[in-house]
Amino acid sequence: MTARGLTPSLLLQLLVVAGAAGARWRGQGTTPHLQSIILGRCAEYDALVNPDPRGRNCTAIWEAFKVVLVKDPCSVLPSDYDRFIDLSRHSIPRDKSLFWENNHLLVTSYSENGLRFLPLCSVLYGRIGDFLSWCRQENASGLDYQSCPTSEDCENNAVDSFWKRASMQYARESSGVISVMLNGSEPSGAYPVKGFFADFEIPYLQKDKITRIEIWVMHEIGKPKVESCGEGTVKILEERLKKMGFQYSCINDHLPVKLLKCVDHSTHPDCVLNSAAASREIPPLWAEHGASHIVPFLVALASAVHM
Amino acid sequence: MANHRCGSVSEEEPCCDISKKTKICLCVFFGLLVAVIIAVPVGILMWRHPLQEWKGKGTTAHFYEILLGRCYTYTQIVRPELGHKDCQKIGKAFTTAFLSKDPCSSTEQDYQPLLELTAQTVPCNKTLFWSKSSQLAHDYTRVQGDLFTLEDTLLGYMADGLKWCGDPRSSEMNYQSCPDWREDCSNNSFSVFWNAVSKRFAEDACGVVHVVLNGSISNTFDERSTFGRVEVFNLRPEKVHQLQAWVMHDVGGVHSDSCSSSSVNNLKRILKERSIAFSCQNNYGPIRLLQCVKNPEPSSCR
Fold first, then answer.
1. Which of A155, B118, B134, B253 is most enclosed, with most CB atoms within 10 A?
2. Among the options B124, B165, B280, B292, which is catalytic?
C-alpha cells in the first residue's frame, strides 16, 4: 500500500510546492487544518459509519495522535502510535479484509466505503490517516507545511511509521478469508517484495484465525499484462504463503473487480457484456419511438390474415 | 420589640425558648429554603426540557465537527482548487441558518449566506442528477471522477447523510428530535436546505446534463421527487440544451423498456415545454457494468 495514496492532482500540487519552495524533503507538506480533519473523520465514523456502543472519545484519539507532531521529523517510530491505535482500534468482520498494492483508488471504489470489503482505509485508524500528510519542522516546534520526509529521506518519518503501525494492527485483526488485490500491469511487479504488504502485513497475519488467502491479479484494460498468477513476483508471493503454511488461491482479473475497471472502458472488446451486445441487437421496433411503427404493421398483418 | 414578620405572633404567646431575633432569622431562612425547593426543580425542568419534540430523528451527533472536517477534506484533498474557501466561515454560516430559529419556519433566505460562501462552478456537460437511484449514481461518480452529483459538490458533500435543526428557545442544536416532513411540517430546516441547494445545482448546470433513473420501480420519473419538483424546473434552457436520461433496471430482473413508459414520456413533455431536448437510454453500459460488480452471476453480466 502506498503511504500517501496521491491522486494526480495531489501529485501536481506536491511537485509545484516542492519545486517552488526548494523544499527540505521529498514528500508533501502537512495537510492544512489537520486537527479539524482528523476530529471530523473520527466524529463521522462514530456517528455514521460504525458507532461504538461504549462511545469513542475523539478528543482523546486526537491527543494520542498529536504526540508525534512534536517529535523530530526523522525520529518517529511505529510504536509512537501505540496509544493512538489502542484508542481507535475496533474489530474487523470475518472475510472482509482486503489487502492491496498499487491500486488505492480501485480498492476504494470496489470496497464501496466498507460495505463490500473493509480495507485498511475503511477502518477507523486507516480512515483517519487516509490521504493526509504530517510532520514537525526540522529545527522548530511547529508543523512543516512545505514538505515532509519520505522513506527516501529517512526511514523513521511520521507518515510511513503511521502506516507501518496501522498495517500491523490491521493484519493482526484480520480473520477468515483474506483477499489481496495486486496490479498485474505494474512494470516493477505485482507483488512488491519490499513494501507494506510484504513487510508489515504478511508477517502479522494470524494463521489460526485465517482460513485461506485469495489473490486477485488485476490487469489494466488494454494495457500489457506484465505478470499473472504463477509468474514473476506473484510466484514469489505464492511460494512465501505456501512456506508459511497458508492455504491460498490465485485468480487473474477477478470478475467483479474487472467489471468495475470496465466502467471506464465500456466499449473495449474486453469489456463488452452479453447483455450489452444483446440490447444493441434489439430491433429498432423496441427503441424509443419504435412502437409507433409496429402497431399499424400488426394491424395490417392481422387484417391480411383474416381475409 | 414586637415584630410581625413571621405572622401574628402575639407577644403573650410563649414559643420555645428562642429569642425573637432568632425566630426572625429562622423564619427568613425557612422561607428562603421553601422558595429554593420550589424554584430549583421548576428551573431545571424549564432549562433542561425547553426543546420542542418532533417526530423525526434529531441532529446528528457531533454535527459541527463532521461538517468542518468534511469541508476541509473537500477543499484540501478532494478538490484542492477550492483551497481558498474559508471553512470556519462556512461552518458558521451553516449553523446560523437554523440555530435559535423555529425549525418549521425555515426559508431559503436563511441559507443565502451559506450558498454564497460555497458557490462552485460545475463544468458543462458534467452534471449528473439522480432520482430513486442514489447508490448507483454515487457509485458511478466515485469511479467517473469528473462527473458531479449534488453530493459531489462542496455543500452537498458536507451535508450528505446529516440531520439538523434548532429551537427558538435555545441556542443549541436539538439532538433529541427534528421535524419530520410528513408528520410535522414541510418547511423544516432540513428540507428547505435540500430544496435550495438542488435549485441552485440545477440553475448552475450547462450543456448536456444527465439523470440516472430507476426503471425497476413503477414511477420511474416521479413528479413529487426533488428531481421532479425542483431540479427539472430550474434548469436554464439558455444554458442546458439537452437532458439525457439513463434508465437502469435491476440486473437479472425483468427487462422492460422504461424509456417509452408513460412516466418518462411525462418528463419528456415537461422538458419540451421548457425548450430543452430530451434523449433516453435503457441500461447505459458503464452503469450496467457497475450493477454487475455487485451481482456478477446473472447471464447478462458475463
1. B118
2. B124
